[in-house]
Amino acid sequence: MLDLHSHVLHGVDDGPPTLEGSLEILRAARADGIAAIAATPHVRHDHPTSPERMEAGVAELNALDTGVEVLTGGELDLAYLETLDDEALRRFGLGGNRSLLLLEFPYSGWPLSLRDVVFRLGVGGFAIVLAHPERSPEVQAAPERLRELVDAGVVVQLTAASVDGRLGRRAAATSRALLERGLAHLIASDAHSPSVRAIGMRDAAAAVGDEALAAWLTDEVPRALLAGEPLPARPKLRKSRRLRRRV
Questions:
Q1: d(Cα 195, Cα 72) in Å, to the nearest integer?
Q2: Tens digits of per-residue pLDDT, 114-166?
Q3: Is residue 203 part of a domain?
Q4: Alpha-carbon gap, residue 56 to 50, rounded angstroms
Q5: Whole-angstrom Cα distance, residue 185 to residue 226?
Q6: Residue 244 domain-assigned?
Q7: In the predicted model, is pLDDT for residue 194 greater than 60?
Q8: How many structural domains are present in the chain?
């Protein structure tokens, strides 16, 4: 599996404060079957991570040879985007793909500027992955609101802890609704520590209840994104094996 959203870098944002915390996440990732993990620190006003700081943190972890490759990236705040020039955006490219950006969907309120931001970035040659919209009350109330963005080419990422129920019933139900509507493409851990939104990719894949679809969400789609290739055909979710929520 490939994990394209994590806060594995230490001392950068609200992820682990120490190097040992980063190593604990990487050990958990390796035990969970993850071959590579993208370091996507927050890039926003309260955590104004620079490309240089992110790249140095990734190099530090890769030098330790943990058995899990750490990839570059950043979780970009919609408002903070205005402060970043084109070269900074490309250095924050998800997984090292300089044309792919991970945007943070806010936890409350529908971002009125989102459609314009997606259009503007698309004109600039960027593709978009939208992080954890299933945790938004607005999306929970109306999952179809994402249809326009998906039709425009936006890739939707679900958090593993939403899919398997660790983040509650509403996030789990919305994850199911988005998957059943074909409005989600990717599962990632969004891990902040071994105990806070822990890796849990294996459990989330099992909660999907369909091996082919789970492999598409955790391996095939992320590989295509990293390579800058079109997404592979999505397996159909079998009606008799609907998504399970861990109680």
A1: 23
A2: 999 999 999 999 999 999 999 999 999 999 999 999 999 999 999 999 999 99
A3: yes
A4: 10
A5: 14
A6: no
A7: yes
A8: 1
Q: Name residue, tokens 């969400």.
A: 217
Residue 221 has pLDDT above 80, yes or no: yes
DSSP string, 188-242: E--BSSSSSS---HHHHHHHH--HHHHHIIIIIHHHHHHHTPPPPPPPP--TTSP
Residue 22 lies in a domain: yes
Cα distance between residue 2 and residue 100, in whole Å: 16
Spell 230-242 as b/e; 16+ CB within 10 A means b: eeeebeebeeeee
Query: Nearest-CA neighbor of 173 among 101, 243, 123, 107?
Result: 243
Give the total residue count for the chain: 247
Is residue 246 domain-resident? no
Domain that holds residue 21: 2-227
Say if residues 51 and 92 touch (Cβ distance below 8 Å): yes
Query: For position 176, which CATH number holds?
Result: 3.20.20.140
State whether residue 73 is helix, strand or coil. coil
> Quick one: which of 161, 100, 162 has its CA closest to 130?
100
Report the alpha-carbon angle 246-69-85, nearest 5: 100
pLDDT at 247 over 50: no
